[in-house]
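Exercise 3.2. Students should predict the tertiary structure of the chain below and write it as structure tokens, then compare their answer with the key that follows.

Predict this chain's 3D structure.
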Amino acid sequence: MDYFYLAAAVGTYAVGLVCQSVGAKRQPQLGVRFQALARLAGDPLYIVGFLCQTAGFVLAFLARANLPIYLVQGAVCASVALAAFIGYAVLGRQTSTSELAVFVAMAGAVAMLLAASRPSNAYDISGGALLGFAILTVVVTGATFAASRCAGAVPLACLAGVSFAVLAVAGRPVASHIGVGLVGDPLAWIVLATAVVGQVQMALALARGSTTVVGSVMDSTTLVVGSVVGLLLLGDRIAEGRALWVIVGVLISVGGVAAMAGIDSRRRRAAESSKIGRTDAVEIYMAEG
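Answer key:
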């Protein structure tokens, strides 16, 4: 059942990322203001995307109960490639050979992580680690205001990645003992806080950059940070003799989302150059007329 949750999470994350990106692009560039976020929350397509992201979050949360973070986050990284494919298909964009190669490579990376993973319950988190997560959550939340003043999407996407990494690490022990007792569990409140903060950071980033760039930066950060902490702190297991598979799988996943971002950037530059060329042609025509 854990693997079903993981597969469903990848699909819903991809659809949600596309919908949220289109919805965010309809709004003027956002600062951290209640009015701006309220306008974004009022966009129907963005709401659909948010609901899909919420469903993906719940499914990934359930998958982490017994699956290691490096596998779950590696699969979630693949949702960036899937989101790009859905965007091109729905919006009528062509998919290049390079993109198809990235899709295949990331699918192979997920297969490697799947073959190397071993299900296990997470270790209990110590009081010191719990305090560290709480402090990090406050720091990342405060940094959102500074990052929102930057013109680009990368700082906000990085912060969203850190928020979701904290969520992934804190959420793995929580997912193992779901029940009424979670109301009094500090880890559960950290999961809730980082989920909300991460969504806000992602929304602000999507208003400034493309789906692929934001998703790649965010998911790469979550994958690397979450995987390392999961192995060191939570006792995530690797099949005997397959540690190299995990390293290669994670590197391919990170490289894949970076490649998707590069492809998207080149496409945007080409589109802008084409637009400038058409504008120059119109101006020449008007001058000659």
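Discussion points: The mean pLDDT is 81. The radius of gyration is 20 Å.
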